[in-house]
Design a protein that fits this description.
Layout: H1 6-20, H2 28-35, H3 39-51, E1 55-58, E2 64-67, H4 76-84, H5 108-124, H6 132-135, E3 156-158, E4 161-163
Antiparallel strand pairs: 1-2, 3-4
Helix pairs in contact: 1-3, 1-4, 2-3
């Protein structure tokens, strides 16, 4: 089963809250209360998102967190990568592969193609798309799935990272 971790889920919830409330900075305590996630968890997630370059953080009595760029410029793939590391569905598409079969594996290329497709799908969904209640109209989801990409346009895996 493919599943994001809880921290990633919380990260998307927190980022969505910040995207909806851009009028001021928000400290960890305020965020924890607003999204009903324990304060230690919020602090951990916000630290990961800050280190991932998705949040600006300012220390001090009037400090807090803000998005580092507009919600329409932040992809869900970026949020996932900031919390969980590079997206890799199998070990052989990871930069830290320790698979004994990798040298002679006949399906590795296909896993790279699948991983690339999943990455591109997640990259097409922007944080602004996650603000469903503001853009949800007549039962239509605001998320627009990516168009079919010609094989020549698929990202190329280099050293375990997706490029393209």
């Amino acid at each position: 089963m493919l599943r994001m971790g809880k921290l990633t889920d919380y990260g998307i919830v927190l980022m969505s809250y910040l995207a909806e409330n851009t009028d001021s900075q928000h400290n960890a305590q305020m965020l924890a209360e607003a999204v009903r996630v324990p304060l230690p968890t919020v602090r951990k997630v916000m630290k990961l998102l800050s280190h991932g370059g998705l949040l600006n953080s300012e220390r001090g009595a009037h400090g807090g967190y803000t998005l580092a760029k507009a919600a329409c410029e932040i992809s869900i793939a970026e949020v996932i990568a900031a919390i969980e590391g590079p997206i890799a569905l199998t070990e052989c598409v990871s930069s830290e592969s320790h698979c004994d079969q990798e040298v002679h594996c006949v399906v590795q290329t296909n896993w790279e193609r699948i991983n690339s497709a999943v990455y591109h799908a997640l990259d097409e969904v922007k944080l602004s798309d996650m603000l469903v209640h503001k853009t949800h109209v007549n039962g239509v989801s605001p998320i627009h799935f990516y168009r079919s990409v010609p094989q020549s346009d698929l990202a190329i895996k280099q050293g375990g990272e997706i490029h393209g």
